[in-house]
Amino acid sequence: MDSLIKRDGMFPTVVSKLVNPLFEDFFTRDISDWADRSIPSIGVNLPSVNLKETETKFEIELAAPGLKKEDFKIEVDNNMLIVSAEKEEKKEETNKKDNYVRKEFNYQSFYRSFNLPENADENKIEATYKDGILDVSITKKSVERNKSLKAIPVK
User: How many domains, in total, are found in the chain?
Assistant: First the structure.
């Protein structure tokens, strides 16, 4: 006669404690939850961004360590600021004495876009990259406002 085995979900209790983290979540987790968790595990890296507004400019700080300033591409298209970067590394190691070859490659890229406010001056944008931080500074346009009060008579 078959004995009853207590199950914790899909697997027996003993096995479940070992296997749950690997397999059971795959079958029970909602697809949208996997999308959020899988991004870092597959090597996709979306840099964190700090946005700051002062009286004279807008500032964007983008955390992108390990890149060079030549890796970045910054464009303005149709009132949208587009910041992207691409980096490819290839390494090869050969040892004829021990008869082995090791090749490795790495590719990373990202693309971020920001809608520019109406008072942003597209012609006065500067970018610097230092210590893993890309700093983009956008000067504000001087928006003329009618400072005098004008009374409108009601007829």
Answer: 2
